[in-house]
């Protein structure tokens, strides 16, 4: 079954025998029970209009130590999780400080390592891996209890926001003689179903693995602009997966079966010499300093033929998908509705890549870090 949807920016204009071709097209097919959504052409561009910037190099609640997560609520308040302070700071859209939620410790309402915050309905939840729990608060900051979690560390340990009422977190569990890593979904009722993290063996060149001279330590280096296999929880208990060199996102059910594929026609951009020199500087510095005499295999970083298509994927409270892709001017968010139809593209301001942006009620909040490592939280209005 095929559905074709013409998405018009300016409409069809007819003048005599002349007809303007629609700017972009979405085609939806169902093949062997898998929905395939293909988007082609250029969508409208939405504008980001700055609303407020919060942050300071001095002292006070806006002098952030290590921001790990940001949120907005329906009233326009900005919530900032600071891992160094072990607190959630709340600000208005006027930039003024409103209140603090939590403090350092292991008691009710306290954190030992606040790595991520999210909304589950009207409940504010905070992942605290050192206390092995997800703390629950109301909007006023009052402690409501917690869900037991794991003391689990790593770059992917955070709360994955999939809708207004659901989040997911990574958990390791025993599967026979092995450990299995799964995503556990949480709702207002607490922990629910789990979905195994998907596996995929990447082929192609890998970055150098270096054994250090002297102490025998090992360092691994990624290839700048290299393709990787990425996965993230998605609405409806599915997992969104992608090989980042391709603009083709496959959604997997808990059984591992593909239920939907969302694509966009995309031409990968070349890597300039300046970008490659900048991206590989850290490896050259390693070899020239404390890496002298190290044994590395392979010895060099193999330059990819082009940049990957995708840098990140996130979901808004309405189930819309925001795909961060490379563009001539930096990065853009391609915005898809919950069916996989491309709606628009939004230029992405410079941002701290380790802090996921957040979208709610026509606003976007993200974190920017300056050359002195000072962090600023910025809120934008999305104008379409």
Model description:
The structure is a single chain. With 384 residues, this protein is mainly beta. The chain has a single domain, classed as Neuraminidase (6 Propeller). The protein contains 2 helices and 34 strands. The chain is globular, with a radius of gyration of 22 Å. 32% of the residues are buried. The model is unreliable at 7-16 (pLDDT under 50).
Q: What's the quick description here?
A:
This protein is mainly beta and 384 residues long. The protein contains 2 helices and 34 strands.
What structural keywords apply?
single chain; 384 residues; mainly beta; Neuraminidase; seven-stranded mixed beta sheet; four-stranded antiparallel beta sheet; 34 strands; 49% strand
Give the helix tally.
Answer: 2
CATH architecture: 6 Propeller
Q: How much helix, percentage-wise, in residues?
A: under 10%
Number of strands: 34
Mean of all residue-level pLDDT scores: 91
- Strand arrangement, largest sheet? 1-4-5-26-25-24-23
Q: What is the CATH C level class, in words?
A: Mainly Beta
The CATH homologous superfamily corresponds to: TolB, C-terminal domain
Q: How many distinct folded domains?
A: 1
Question: How much of the sequence is in beta strands?
Answer: over 45%
The helix-and-strand class reads mainly beta
Using the alpha-carbon principal axes, give the shape. globular
Q: What name is given to the CATH topology? A: Neuraminidase
| Radius of gyration using CA atoms only | 22 Å
End-to-end Cα distance:
32 Å
Largest sheet: 7 strands, mixed
List the helices and strands and how they pair.
Layout: E1 2-7, E2 14-15, E3 18-19, E4 24-31, E5 34-41, E6 47-54, E7 67-72, E8 78-82, E9 87-91, E10 97-101, E11 103-104, E12 110-111, E13 114-120, E14 123-128, E15 133-137, E16 143-148, E17 160-161, E18 167-175, E19 178-187, E20 190-196, E21 209-211, E22 218-220, E23 229-234, E24 238-243, E25 248-252, E26 258-264, H1 273-279, H2 281-288, E27 295-297, E28 310-315, E29 321-327, E30 330-336, E31 342-347, E32 358-360, E33 363-369, E34 375-383
Parallel strand pairs: 5-26, 11-12
Antiparallel strand pairs: 1-4, 2-3, 4-5, 6-34, 7-8, 8-9, 9-10, 13-14, 14-15, 15-16, 17-18, 18-19, 19-20, 21-22, 21-27, 23-24, 24-25, 25-26, 28-29, 29-30, 30-31, 32-33, 33-34
């Amino acid at each position: 079954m095929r559905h074709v949807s013409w998405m018009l920016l300016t409409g069809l204009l007819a003048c005599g025998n002349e007809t303007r071709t629609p700017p972009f097209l979405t085609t939806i097919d169902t093949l062997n029970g898998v929905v395939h959504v293909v988007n082609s052409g250029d969508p409208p561009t939405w504008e980001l209009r700055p609303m407020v910037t919060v942050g300071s190099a001095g002292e006070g609640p806006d002098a952030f130590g290590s921001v790990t997560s940001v949120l907005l609520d329906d009233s326009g308040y900005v919530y900032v999780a600071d891992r160094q302070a072990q607190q959630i700071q709340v600000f208005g859209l006027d930039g003024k400080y409103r209140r603090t939620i939590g403090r350092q410790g292991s008691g009710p309402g306290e954190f030992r390592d606040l790595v991520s915050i999210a909304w589950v309905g009207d409940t504010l939840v905070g992942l605290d891996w050192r206390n092995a729990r997800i703390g629950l608060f109301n909007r006023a900051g009052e402690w409501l209890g917690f869900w037991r979690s794991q003391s689990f560390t790593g770059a992917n340990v955070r709360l994955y926001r999939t809708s207004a009422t659901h989040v997911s977190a990574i958990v390791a569990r025993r599967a026979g003689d092995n450990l299995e890593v799964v995503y556990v979904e949480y709702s207002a009722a607490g922990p629910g179903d789990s979905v195994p993290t998907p596996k995929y063996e990447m082929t192609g060149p890998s970055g150098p693995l270096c054994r250090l001279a002297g102490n025998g330590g090992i360092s691994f280096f990624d290839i700048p602009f290299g393709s990787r296999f990425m996965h993230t929880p998605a609405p409806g208990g599915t997992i969104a997966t992608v090989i980042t060199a391709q603009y083709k996102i496959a959604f997997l059910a808990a059984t591992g079966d593909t239920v939907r594929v969302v694509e966009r026609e995309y031409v990968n951009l070349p890597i300039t010499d300046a970008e490659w020199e900048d991206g590989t500087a850290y490896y050259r510095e390693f070899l020239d300093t404390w890496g002298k005499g190290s044994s590395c295999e392979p010895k060099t970083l193999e330059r990819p033929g082009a940049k990957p298509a995708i840098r990140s994927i996130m979901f808004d409270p309405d189930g819309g998908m925001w795909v961060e892709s490379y563009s001539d001017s930096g990065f853009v968010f391609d915005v898809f509705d919950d069916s996989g139809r491309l709606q628009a593209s939004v230029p992405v301001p410079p941002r701290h890549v380790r802090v996921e942006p957040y979208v709610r009620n026509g606003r976007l909040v993200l974190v920017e870090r300056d050359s002195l490592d000072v962090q600023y939280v910025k809120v934008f209005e999305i104008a379409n």
